[in-house]
Amino acid sequence: MNLLLLEDADFVGEDRVRLSGRRLKHLHEVHRAEAGDRLRVGRLGGLMGEGRLMALDAEHAELQVSLDQAPPAKLPLTLVLALPRPKMLKRVLQTVSAMGVPRLVLVNSYRVEKSFWQTPFLEAEAIREQLILGLEQARDTVLPDVSIEKRFKPFVEDRLPALATGTLGLIGHPGDYPACPRAVQEPVTLAIGPEGGWIPYEVDLLRQAAGLQPVQLGERILRVETAVPALLARLF
Amino acid sequence: MNLLLLEDADFVGEDRVRLSGRRLKHLHEVHRAEAGDRLRVGRLGGLMGEGRLMALDAEHAELQVSLDQAPPAKLPLTLVLALPRPKMLKRVLQTVSAMGVPRLVLVNSYRVEKSFWQTPFLEAEAIREQLILGLEQARDTVLPDVSIEKRFKPFVEDRLPALATGTLGLIGHPGDYPACPRAVQEPVTLAIGPEGGWIPYEVDLLRQAAGLQPVQLGERILRVETAVPALLARLF
To answer: In this protein, which residues make up the domain named Ribosomal RNA small subunit methyltransferase E methyltransferase (chains A, B) (predicted)?
Structure first.
């Protein structure tokens, strides 16, 4: 936790917050914080700054905060991701949030196992928990927008074209395709497939309905949780 | 497992292998393989090609293999990594192997918790197991060379200079430093710190003793397992 993230409900005064639960535990066990310590803080959806720990015991921590810095810029990106397996989903949500992806669409694909859709990690509260961990890691305050599309075809035909309009539309896909571009200056829509990749029908639909073009990162097949940071670091 | 990796001990004839254990289980449970199936195979440290499944039962699989393709090129990189926490170490070893890092040095740092050095995941057999998973993921046959340096200063002063000679020496380090270069053409020595980063003394020693220069990836603080693929994808 490189940033102590504050929610509206934590505020007991204009510049005063009171914490308990996970963040209090973290202050005690990881930061080994004491009254008087100064910590980086941020208000969820708002500014970042400094908090001074006024009091701390087993039940609560109280901080006086001063918030005056804007959070870091987001990437100009919509990421369309075939739903990863549950354990990987958790880590990918943290990565997406930490790297500054503002919009994530989790979508079905032929090679997504049906059971993945049953995971409790897809519940809104569980998704939010992982996104918050990513913000705390990277020092950001603004939650990405995550949407879930359980049907590939209607999403790609009916909603993706509007999302992709005016962007560079790319499909991360191993094969005989152009290399993924570097340091692009324009907004990007990037579709990353499941373990095993998109099937040809899906690549065709992403191309034809939404104008996305396949690009590759070399002959090595990467896990989704590796491909995501690799593609984003190369693109931006 | 995108490549069935064969070891010398698997060969029962010049082009004939016999498998049991983990890989047999994977053939049954994930590939749902049947006699006659063709699979991508590679010989550890050697060539890649195709295997035809001649027989398969609960005890063994037998394949006839034809090996004629070189494995993919490695990155021109020596990666010096502060020892991550054990769970992350496992994933990072897979990533390093999958992305084609030929040489990894796991090193101590002030912010590496002492307990991390006690993990059984640092035993040679455990490291090898994770590296193999990375090779199977990415379709490569050549194990990276992993060395362990439990003392930072003697490593950086006595051995790192020779490793870094003739390479672009970089320290991945958040802060007011030049941006990490892109698409470099020369060999690189890259040092990535622990969670919390290198301490100033360590950065100074990496600079002065071995000529490495700090570079940054932006103001977001990334977990080590995200920073590794992000830095590699940007550099190469």
So the answer is: 73-234
